[in-house]
Amino acid sequence: MNKLITVVLLVICNLLAQSVEAKVKLPAIVSSNMVLQRNASVKLWGWANANEKIAINTSWLSKKIIIQADNEGHWYTEVITTGSKSPQTIHIKSKESDITLDNILFGEVWLCSGQSNMQQPLKGYNGQPTFGGNMAIAKSANPHLRLFTVERVGAKEPLNELEKYTAWQEATPQSVMNFSAVAYFFGQQLQEILDVPVGMIHTSWGGSSVQAWMSKEVMSEFQEVNLENVDIDQKTNRIPTALFNAMIHPLIPYTIKGALWYQGESNRGEPENYKKMFPAMVKDWRSQWGIGDFPFYFTQIAPFIYGNNEAFQGLDNSAFIREAQLQCVGLIPNSGIAITMDVGDDHCIHPPKKKEVADRLLFNALNQTYGMTTVDYAGPVFESQEVKDDGIVLKFKHAETGVFAYEALSGFEIAGADKVFYPASAKIINRKDLIVKSNKVPKPVAVRYAWCNWVQGTLYDVNLLPASSFRTDSWEDATRVKDVVE
């Protein structure tokens, strides 16, 4: 009798297990309250029982979509969205499932990633404010702005589903206070300017290296990746591929418009490697998403003292990683950079002026992605030099209406053929060029600007977009003489 009861219980448990298996499951990113990229072919996917037939009805398409899971239970389809601003629904039905996703909007979807300066919330960190965050929180209620957060976790292998996350939410004071300040300011203003719904997906981890956000296939081009015996819970944000596996891969192939990136402090000691790895990461993300070279806008790290502001030629000088990041604009198609030379904080690696960062990323998007060509998006970039009148005249691109300084220009140095740099004076001439001089260097050869860890940028275009630190040389053995600017 007991044996019969045991057999019956096993049969019942098996049937229940099969029933559970057969139910359709969706990835966390595909849910009620989500924003789907408007006027696009968007991806919907999930899991079910092997070969399960699934019917999908949407509120905006008249025809039902019929698909079938494959032998392993994976299913995938593409759906054409519209430009409607009305809330939509998706109804997914199978033999064992009946799922309704509601309050869906069509709009602009942006992915935001990086390290602690992207992660910094509107409410700020302890003892480290986000300027304007309190008012932004107070005015944040907006059903047309939606937020999704991937929580911090790593993995040894690519995951198909997120382990920890905060699901899609409408913007409210409660939902935005812990959300990325840069992502929020960008999304809130984009929503207001375009007057369409906006969805912001935030996935970042403070202190993370670029290596952690790269897939194994691409990271293996730079170093061997074997995580078999690695403790994934120790220094997770520095483990190659760990964050890509757990915090990026599960989001693919959710259709996005573009990506924002704020990272680099953790790689400041390897500018040449960064100049190779970062473009490779972007190329790989785009390949894996399969939607072409989507816009990728990133932030140059801000000046910070880093404990040694006397560093000049060595890698302790973060000007070299800033230079590498600026050069990445030319290495990454459909990209742009937000320069932050004027918003750093000498003793805080988390500058409080996050809205300025978001504004400059937004200017890139408005001009280059959304066709608002009257919106300036790039500050002055060194283009050429000419020795003249015992000085050097510098010319800049992206300064169509000239250059500007609030007061006297500072941070300039000049060197002769001996490669020894002296402090120099700099003046704006013809409202568009600079002339840099020092009576200690009668035969100048090269100029450097803001070439140190901590500096307050002084050179802008007329729309107050700052110039990056730059050098007109490529010397590896330059030195600096301490002096007083003339």
UniProtKB/TrEMBL annotation:
Q: What is the lineage of its organism?
A: Bacteria, Pseudomonadati, Bacteroidota, Bacteroidia, Marinilabiliales
The Sialate O-acetylesterase domain extends over 108-340
Report the leader peptide range. 1-22
> What UniProt keywords are attached to this protein's entry?
Hydrolase, Signal
Q: Which InterPro entries match?
A: SASA (IPR005181), SGNH_hydro_sf (IPR036514), SIAE (IPR039329)
SUPFAM superfamilies associated with the record: SGNH hydrolase
Which Gene3D superfamilies does the entry link to?
Answer: SGNH hydrolase
The protein's name is Sialate O-acetylesterase domain-containing protein
> Signal among the record's keywords?
yes
